[in-house]
Structures are given as C-alpha cells and as structure tokens.
Write a sequence for this structure.
C-alpha cells in the first residue's frame, strides 16, 4: 500500500474505499498515531456512524476484523477521534494525530457463563481475553483482535509513521486515561509501538520453546490447538500478551507449512534468549 495525496491506495494506485466524514477540522500536521476500538457491532456500523454529521466523531481509518480498511478523512485533515486528551506536552490530540478505529466490541462482562458486550452482543469464549486494564485494578473480559486485523493495522501504521514522520504510537487509553479504555489489553500495544517506532528498548524479547509444544486458541488446555501446532523444539516465538501462566505468542518462523502462527502456550515451555 502507499499514500497518494493523503489517501490510502493499493500498490497499483487504486484507492482504498473512502467514505468521507463531515466530522473533520482544518489542516493537520500529524505527530502521533492514536489507536482505538469502535465498541460497536461491526465495521459497517462504525463507518456509517462516523460518517453522520450528528455523531460529531470520526477517525481517519476504520479497520475491519478481516483486515479491510476504509478511509473517512484525508490524512492531512483533522479527524475527531481523541476528544479531551493529552500527551507529550500536547492537549486536544485531534490537532496533532491520525486516528485508527479497529472493529472490536470492547470490554465484556460475564453473564452466567457467557461473555457479553456493553450492548448485549455475546462473544464466543475463544475471542475473549480476561485481563486487567493497565489503568484499572479489576480483571474484565476483552474482545480479542484477529490476526488479519492486526496485520493490516501494522502495515498501514508503519506506512503512516514513515510517511508523516510520526513521533509516537499511543492508545486512546494512554492519552485520555480514566475516560477511555480503548484499545485495551487485548491490543498488543507494546509490540505494535515497538515495531512501528523501531525502538531498541521495546524490541520484542525472543523466546525458544523447550518442548514439542501445542499452540492453543485461548489460555488453557481446554482450548483447541491452532493450525500448524505443535511447534517443534527450538521454535522461536515472541510474547504478545500474558494471562496467568499462559502467554499469547507470535511464532517467528513458518512451522509445519504454516506461516504467521499466533496463539497461547504455557510459559513453562518458554526459554528466554539473549
Ligand atoms: Zn477511542
């Protein structure tokens, strides 16, 4: 992908879908990238809402769970995604940031044995991460981000950082703590920011597996194994998230003919390298 005239385009120059939002301000010189979740039922719903004048909110991009990307505001124009916020000496980050919304229902509460969103949508167990938000002290459920969506976010995020020489990548929950929870603990922010900014101190720590190891779709042996599992002894992985004794990992090499494996393993079988 590339950027032509502040619009996101494919390599051959074809623009990505553009649904212009009237909720935009003056010229933007972006310094930061701000990540969000939509807390809605679908990307289509989010795009429709953010393109309505009475909603008074927008973002530059919405990324669907399948990795599809829709642009709503050109990258040289202010979008209304951050609200009251502060970061690195700036306030009101709309005027200094590009905003990306990820289709994700957000935080989840437990009703009996089921996880449900704030608007009552039931989310299957294998799409739920139980974790405590960094700005909170109680564990909750969080809707996980599919790999296709994270990959798309990584690709477009890196392009934006390069093109606009952005200084930092943050979450809405970093710039509006106490008021906002998105993108939340299910989003691998440390890894994402580290890769986009190429910061030495946030370079991922590589681990090696010390046994033939099953990779599961969730933290716990009751979750099914993912395609490509089990990993052979010595496979190199990087940790994306933690939950009790379990680690969500990104497998750094193709295994059993399978590329880009991600899933959960028990920490007992990981050995830190370097
Ligand atoms: Zn947000």
């Amino acid at each position: 992908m590339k950027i032509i005239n502040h619009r996101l385009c494919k390599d051959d120059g074809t623009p990505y879908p553009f649904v212009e939002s009237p909720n935009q301000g003056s010229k933007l010189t972006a310094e930061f990238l701000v990540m969000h979740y939509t807390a809605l039922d679908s990307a289509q719903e989010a795009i429709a809402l953010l393109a309505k004048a009475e909603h008074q909110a927008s973002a530059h991009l919405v990324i669907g769970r399948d990795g599809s990307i829709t642009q709503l505001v050109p990258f040289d124009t202010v979008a209304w995604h951050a609200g009251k916020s502060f970061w690195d000496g700036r306030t009101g980050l709309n005027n200094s940031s590009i905003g990306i919304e990820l289709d994700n229902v957000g935080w989840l509460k437990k009703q009996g044995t089921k996880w449900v969103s704030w608007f009552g949508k039931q989310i299957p167990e294998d799409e739920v991460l139980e974790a405590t938000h960094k700005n909170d002290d109680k564990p909750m459920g969080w809707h996980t981000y599919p790999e296709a969506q994270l990959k798309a976010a990584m690709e477009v995020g890196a392009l934006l950082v390069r093109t606009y020489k952005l200084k930092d990548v943050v979450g809405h929950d970093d710039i509006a703590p106490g008021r906002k929870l998105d993108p939340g603990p299910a989003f691998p922010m440390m890894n994402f920011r580290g890769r986009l900014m190429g910061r030495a101190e946030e370079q991922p720590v590589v681990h090696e597996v010390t046994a033939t190891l099953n990779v599961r779709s969730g933290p716990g042996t009751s979750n099914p194994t993912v395609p490509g599992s089990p990993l052979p002894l010595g496979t190199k992985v990087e940790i994306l998230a933690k939950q009790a004794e379990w680690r969500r990992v990104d497998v750094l090499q193709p295994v059993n003919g399978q590329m880009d494996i991600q899933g959960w393993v028990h920490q007992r079988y990981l050995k830190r390298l370097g």
